[in-house]
Amino acid sequence: MITQYSYGTPVETFAVVEDVPAGHQLTHFTLESGPSLTFTCPLAATDLVYGLGETMRGVNKRGGRYISFNYDDPKHRDDMPSMYGAHNLLVVDGETPFGAFFDTPAKVVFDVDSKGNGLLNVSCESPDLRLYLVEGSSAYDVVKQFLGIIGRSFLPPLWAFGYGQSRWGYKTEKDISRVASKHRDAGIPLDYLCMDIDYMDRYIDFTVNRRRFPDLAGYTARMKEQGIHLVPIVDAGIKIEPGNAVYDEGIQNDYFCKNREEKNFQAEVWPGMTHFPDFLQEKVRHWFGDCYQFYTSQGLEGFWNDMNEPAIFSTEYRSKLAKPDVARGDPDQPDRHIADFKDFFHRLDDGRQMSNYEVHNLYGAMMTRASGEGLNRLLDRRYLLFSRSSYIGAHRYGGIWTGDNASTWHMLRQNVYHMPSLNMCGFLYSGADTGGFGGNTNRELLLRWLAVSVFTPLMRNHTAILTRHQECYRFRDPEDFRTIISLRYRLLPYLYSEFMKAALRQDMFIRPLAFDYPEDQRVRKIEDQLVVGGNVMIAPVLEKGAKGRTVYLPEPMTEVRYNGEFSCSDVEAGERMVDVPLNEVVFYIKRGTLVPAGKAVSCTAELNLEDVVLLGSGTVYEQYVDDGSTKECGLDRCVIRRKEG
Ligand code: MIG
Question: Measuring from atom 6 of ligand 1, which residue has the nearest CA?
């Protein structure tokens, strides 16, 4: 059961797409209203609190303080309050499970019993918001109801489930081709290569540096023949450059955000001084989406949207080096940036003018919506899109990656924690920079990280400029990397099928163990094992130097070891020590279920989803199958596979 409570004049966020009846008397929370609205709810000692998508710390958010205020900060420490996305859903798992979605694009502070006094405290800076309360029979039931009102997940094409390689620093066609052929030579599967900002002419969106890519359309076609897609980056700001068609159109039609003097606001980002498109306006989104024709007309079908919190280097008011000019009294974000966001304005379609600060968390989401809707108009098949910044609702148009993590074991663990939390908030197609973005990775960390990424929908190795090269073929015994990545491709008949079924049913794809085994008290504390799709449990090795790990099985399962071949054995419920050499992956299939596995291939273009063996102890599997790109997706595409004898 879901009810909504409306306060003030809420800004349209487009997060909820179904009608939800209004409640009369607020339940679960007490409300204190002043300049901001503060909702308080007592927690029982044993309550767990799930949700909050892209935030730090574990899957159970209890004991922390989190702030929804989208922000570009690579210091992903446990106490960092804000990341790139705002996912304002909490799910309290206790005696009477319930969920609360605070639908507001302004700053929200979630204090999830950080002081240990048993209080959940949510402080919404704007008095204009909608609160949705969800009551259900379990935490999982609450989440499913919530997913039911926010609309269906973005459906990426099959190739987006392949392995992608990326690095900030690939500059030319030659750089990209070299990475492609090195993968092919080493027998390491590959489906796409990302093009970071250096492909552009002076970092200007919707341009290509013709010296580096003399014939992008031809090049895109040649790469596609090898089964490799190119995925260019697109940044939020439009360079101020009269004569550039996109800039000129933006000026002529008044598509940019305004400053205090009603002129177009100026902020410095990669291309130099830019204007920010006012993505909160429908007509601006339509225009910006159409701009992607520049790419689609050259054969490109996949994109990543960056810098859309928005990230700002400096503004017309504040230089990079300037000290904060006034003490703004906000300890949670660097003052200078808060001031920047207060300095520019959106003109909402409801007629209101609001500062970016007031509607901040919608900016990246509306860029994603603009791009997704544009690509949907431009292409007759499914596109790949993932964004850095997001808000719930953007999951209908694209996926997200979790931004600038680092090559550390802690970040690998955080990747595992993020997956179920993001799924609760609708972001099924997501993943982290495999191997780590900042800092230097190493062979062991990258192999263990790949073994996790095998199970995340977005599986992309990405790293920052000036860090150690992190393509798999750069390391000793590249065949070990081939083995792990091959497992991804062999499991695609299962992973793709389970992803599509979850998306079409508006369900989660990756869940905490406790969602599948609610009666088992032990799993409530386990955050480093996850359920992937309906039938698989993973228990990845997340520790440096570990030869294996302890795994808890809530029921008897089939243990599958992959070292180039699958070997299966039935194992009992309870705790067991498992050896996991660096070049192997161990995972589990639930009792009485099956997992279809295909042949090893070098890209999804070679994959036959129908040519499978069935692993596990079950008898039937319902497999979703399509051509990997049709827009006509439906559960009627499922076929039944039966295991003989
Ligand atoms: O200021 O485009 O998160 O993935 O490689 C850095 C360069 C801008 C941030 C993204 C990262 C990307 C980088 N970008």
Answer: 307
CA of 187 to the centre of ligand 1 (A): 29
Q: How far apart are CA 87 and CA 103, in angstroms?
A: 9
Residues 6+ apart with CB under 8 A from 626: 500, 633, 637
- Annotated catalytic residue, options 404, 471, 527, 584: 404
Nearest atom, ligand 1, residue 403 CA: 3
pLDDT tens-digit profile of 494-514?
999 999 999 999 999 999 999
Angle 11-429-131 (CA atoms, 0-180°, nearest 5)? Answer: 30
Q: What does each C-alpha distance from 438 to 101, 399, 435, 517 come to in angstroms?
A: 33, 22, 9, 37
Long-range contacts of 580-585 (CB under 8 A, 24+ apart): 580/541, 580/546, 580/547, 580/548, 580/549, 581/547, 582/443, 582/444, 582/447, 582/448, 582/480, 583/447, 583/477, 583/479, 583/480, 583/483, 583/484, 584/483, 585/451, 585/454, 585/484, 585/487, 585/561
Residue 644 banded pLDDT, cuts 50, 70, 90 = confident
Expressed in angstroms and rounded, the spacing between residue 101 Cα and the centre of ligand 1 is 30
pLDDT of residue 333: 52
- Give the active site residue among 309, 433, 471, 480: 309
Residue 309 a catalytic site member:
yes
How many angstroms is it from 437 CA to the middle of ligand 1?
9
- Strand stretches in 298-362, DSSP E: 302-306, 314-315, 345-347, 353-355
Token pair 């859903």 in the structure block, residue: 89
Q: Which residues have C-beta atoms less than 6 Å from ligand 1?
A: 168, 196-197, 233, 306, 388, 403-404, 462
Query: Which distant-in-sequence residues (6+ apart) come within 8 Å of 379 by Cβ?
Result: 296, 301
* Region of poorest pLDDT, from 73-82, 125-134, 579-588: 73-82
Q: What is the rounded distance in angstroms from the CA atom of residue 122 to the CA atom of residue 38? A: 6
pTM reported for the whole predicted model = 0.97
Decide if 349 is catalytic: no
Alpha-carbon distance of 574 to 640, in angstroms, equals 32
What does the DSSP 8-state code read for residue 617?
S
Alpha carbon of 196 to ligand 1 centroid (Å): 8
The answer to whether 373 is a known catalytic residue is no
User: What does the mean pLDDT of the chain come to?
Assistant: 96
Per-residue pLDDT reduced to its tens digit, 535-571: 999 999 999 999 999 999 999 999 999 999 999 999 9
